[in-house]
Amino acid sequence: MREHSHGGTTPPSDVWTGRATNRVQWLLALVGFACLALGIELAVDSAWTSGIAPLAMAVVGCIAAGLLVLFGTLAFVHVALKVDRESLEVRCGHMGLPRRRIPLSQVLGAEVDPNVTPRHWGGWGYRWRPEKGTAVVVRRGEGVRLSLWDGHTFTITVDDAEAAVRIIRDRLRTGTGTPGSAH
Questions:
Q1: pTM score
Q2: Rounded CA gap, 26 and 22, in Å?
Q3: What is residue 132's three-state secondary structure?
Q4: Which residue from 136, 122, 118 is spatially nearest to 24, judged by alpha carbons?
Q5: CB burial class (10 A; 0-12, 13-18, 19+) of residue 129?
Q6: What share of the chain is helix, strand, coil (3-state, %, to 5)?
Q7: How many whole angstroms separate alpha carbon 86 and alpha carbon 176?
Q8: Three-class secondary structure of residue 109 per DSSP
Q9: pLDDT averaged over consecutive 10-residue blocks of the chain (183 residues)?
């Protein structure tokens, strides 16, 4: 995404937004929906004469697997990044969950990571690796890597990561990114 601008004479917006989308996740959501539909089909159309326990386990298993896959994938179809004067906020999926808000006073620096991949982070989603930090990975490609004052890193896949880094660095230079600074 790009920085919001309103023409040559109007100053840019105080809020920058960006996002990244993974359309493959929709295919995985369809698999979840198919499992859910199979569980419902088993529950409705089975004769239940071959034993209630095995059929109930199959129904519950299909429905549970379907819901887990469906909601697990839909939560990471896209990620949205919002940077304002005081913080940045990461929201995942259509419901915005999981969500993380990081005050700029906790950010030491920002840089573009040109090659964020699910393989390096152990898959898609909200990830933590002791040697790498925390990340929200919804697709492979460019992302923003934040260095936090507590020594941790936080990486977000986002389109136009260069613009996001430029905005974050600009906000840090204006004094909102130092520990204990006034907002």
A1: 0.70
A2: 8
A3: coil
A4: 118
A5: exposed
A6: 35, 30, 30
A7: 6
A8: strand
A9: 39 78 77 86 76 80 85 80 93 83 95 93 88 90 94 94 94 65 42
